[in-house]
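Extended Data, panel c. Modelled sequence:
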Amino acid sequence: MSERIALYYDDASGERYEEKAFKKLGRPYTKIGPEKVTLQDLRSFDVVFIPGAFPLKRHGKGGFRPFLRFLRRLVENYGET
């Protein structure tokens, strides 16, 4: 069974690079929105990603590709548990 990953999402943010990275890797994730962020809801996930928490694209150090590399490292280190 794979870990339960949540990606916070609201209608204002649209599709973010985090969501594109999950799709590219084929990693299952659950989108959660403002109505599903109670402590009990959050405890049902192993990992919660909040868009914008990863470094913004500044001087080529943030954005889609670095986040994709981060996810790949996460998968390599923790595998398909």
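The CA atoms of residues 21 and 65 lie 8 Å apart. This feature is highlighted in the accompanying rendering.
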